[in-house]
Amino acid sequence: MPTIKHATPGAAVTVLDSELDGLANGGVSGVSGSGTGTVYDGATGLNLVGDLELVVTFGAAPTAGTTVEVYMVGAPDGTNYSDGDRNSAELVVVFTLRNNAANRVLRRDVPLPPHSAKFFIRNNSGQSTSGTANALKLFPHNISSA
Fold first, then answer.
1. How far apart are the C-alpha atoms of 142 and 146, rounded to whole Å?
2. Does residue 23 contact residue 135 with C-beta atoms inside 8 Å?
3. 139 near 12, Cβ under 8 Å?
4. Structural domain includes residue 76
5. Chain mean pLDDT for the chain
6. 114 Cβ neighbours under 8 A, 6+ residues apart
7. What is the Cβ-side half-sphere exposure of residue 37, based on CA atoms within 13 angstroms?
8. 134 lies in which domain range?
9. pLDDT at 38
10. Contact yes or no for 7/141 (Cβ under 8 A)
11. What pLDDT is stored for residue 45 in this prediction?
């Protein structure tokens, strides 16, 4: 009988970077690739899932329990992305924040598409993000059997 286990993770992808800098409360970031963030290429590794890590610093500590929403838009044909607004994009993660100006939060095993995808966030923290050093990273991985 085969043993199911995690496969070796793929390389980390910074899907949002400068897109998160100076983002006001209630604001929506640009999508991956509109700044220095990278578009995720799901067709290359065909990873089933990935861990999403948000590293963000705010001008002042947000109220504990406030959130940052992460959305994804895909391009099944590799070129044309679905509409990129909160009403039509897929909500993939809601990160709950601590009462601390610097937050690092992780969500494991987020399903990934087998094609290109872009991400964006909505800041519901009650505070603006700092002007630098914010990122949303994706750590894609699969499962294997031996």
1. 13
2. no
3. yes
4. yes
5. 93
6. 42, 43, 46
7. 29
8. 29-139
9. 95
10. yes
11. 86
146 within a domain of the structure (yes/no): no
pLDDT one-digit tens code per residue, 62-96:
999 999 999 999 999 888 888 777 778 999 999 99
| Confidence band for 31, pLDDT divided at 50, 70 and 90 | very high
SS3 of 44, please? Answer: helix
Instruction: With respect to residue 135, please indicate whether it lies within any of the assigned structural domains.
Output: yes
- The DSSP element (H or E) to which 146 belongs, if any, is none
Distance CA 23, CA 38 (A): 18
Structure tokens at 20: 């998160």
Question: For the chain, what is the domain count?
Answer: 1
Sheet containing strand 40-41, edge to edge, reads: 40-41, 116-124, 67-75, 90-96
Residue with tokens 């899907």: 15
| pTM for the full predicted model | 0.93
95 phi and psi angles, rounded to 5 deg: -85, 130
With beta carbons less than 8 A apart as the criterion, state whether 70 and 136 touch: yes
Pairing of strands 49-57, 4-6: unpaired
As a whole number of angstroms, the distance between CA 33 and CA 18 comes to 10
User: In the Cβ-directed half-sphere of 19, how many Cα atoms lie within 13 Å?
Assistant: 27
